[in-house]
Amino acid sequence: MADSIVSGVGLAPKDAISFFRSKVNRQSASFGELEAEAHARSFSVAGAMSDALLNDFRKNIDQALRGKVTLAQLQKEFPDLAKRHGWEYKGKPGWRAMIIYQTNLSTAYAAGQYRQLTTPEALDIYPYWRYRHHACQHPRPQHLAWDGLILPADDPFWATHFPPNGWHCHCTVEPVSRRDLKKNNWVVSEAPILETRPWKNPVTGQTVHVPVGIDPGFQTNPGLLWARAEKERAETALVPALKVAGKSMDELPPAEQQAVQAEQIGQLFEHPVGVANAGTLPTEVQSVLKSEADTVLLSDDNLKKNMTHHAEITLDEYLTIPQMIAHPQAVLDAGENHVLLLSRVGKQLYRMIVKTTMDRKENWLLSLLPTSDAKARGLMRSRKVLLDLLLDDDGEK
Questions:
Q1: What does the pLDDT look like over 175-209, one tens digit per residue?
Q2: Cα–Cα dist 140/161, whole Å
């Protein structure tokens, strides 16, 4: 049943993944500690009080959204994950895992669907939405009552009732065109009167009014809140520094260039919105890539992706990216328009993937992760070496 929820939504997961990756970790001792809006923008698991544990959950959910694992697999692995972190959770393993994974997946897909349905093109074709209740073991009477309800996409009803509307809620929204109305003899419904009930938060003691039929914590539309947040964030998005004090980056000494680039990466790390100037390619690497540009850009999306899958990498390590790009020890072939850079900071070796766009006008840093000398030598045996490097047993040039 759980896998059918996410697979049955019927949309590409790109926007669902973007929504999930936009969340920031928030430790919370129990449900109710975060308000509903905070839940829409934050990733938290009640009782999970360490970033290491939250990051493992993030990796699992991200993989599920990308179709790499099933919910059944995540449920099976859940006890070992909890044991690894010494986490004493409430409830039975299967139930607890289902709550964590199913809720995050269904919410992410709903937010992704909301983004797709609210594009100007989609709204022009599908100006109405239809509430759909799907068969489940314990249907909620209110959700059954909303089944088939057709309202304009901009009706205030969707600000509070865009599903999921509770734990284990399987409801969805179906786009409706004018042609659909005519073909099926449907009529636009009259919006239900918004009835609320008081709910006292057991943690904060605050009483909030929640729409009848919706579980506390689900009374917001994450997709709508995400859209508003993205609009606000776009106004403060980081742009690549190409000039400093009237001088182009190329006119600055290498040390000053790298200082500016490290500062940009730090800003993007703290507020992951926009694009940073992450480094300057040496002439020979630029030549290998056949790129017209020597600047390497780092997007918020690639940074968030890397932070999700390699949460062990610290900010201090990210700040050395300009140095690593400027001084690679080896450049290997990584596919069309892609190269793999091996660079060392102190005793630690790193691998980075850099790609140039098809028009050769931009270069982008796709990934960064620590590696070992043994793995580096393995890479050099299995891939074409574009720029030579010899590593001795101590990892020195």
A1: 999 999 999 999 999 999 999 999 988 877 889 89
A2: 14
| Structure-block tokens of residue 304 | 């968030």
Place of tokens 């636009």: 188
Residue 347 and residue 328: Cα distance in Å, rounded? 14
Which DSSP symbol is given to 119? S
Q: Give me the count of residues in the chain.
A: 397
Q: What is the pLDDT of residue 393?
A: 40
389 pLDDT higher than 70: no
Mean pLDDT computed over every residue of the chain:
88
Largest Cα span, the chain: 76
Beta-carbon contacts of 308 under 8 Å, excluding residues fewer than 6 positions away, are: 21, 55, 58, 59, 62
* DSSP tag of 361: S
Range 37-66 burial, b when 16+ CB lie within 10 A, else e = eebbbebbbbbbeeeebbbbbbbbbbbbbe
DSSP 34: S
Q: Token pair for residue 71?
A: 């919910």
The SS3 call for residue 81 is helix
pLDDT > 90 in the chain, percent: 62
The DSSP symbol for 117 reads: H
Q: How many CB atoms lie within 10 A of CB 79?
A: 14
Per-residue tokens: 1: 């049943």
Task: Give the number of other CB atoms < 10 A from CB of residue 120.
Answer: 7
- Say how far apart CA 299 and CA 314 lie, in whole Å: 17
At a CB cut-off of 8 Å and minimum separation 6, what does 39 contact? 217, 220, 222
What's the pLDDT tens digit per position in 114-142? 999 999 999 999 999 999 999 877 889 99
- Between CA 139 and CA 170 the distance in angstroms is 9
User: Residue holding tokens 């690593």?
Assistant: 324
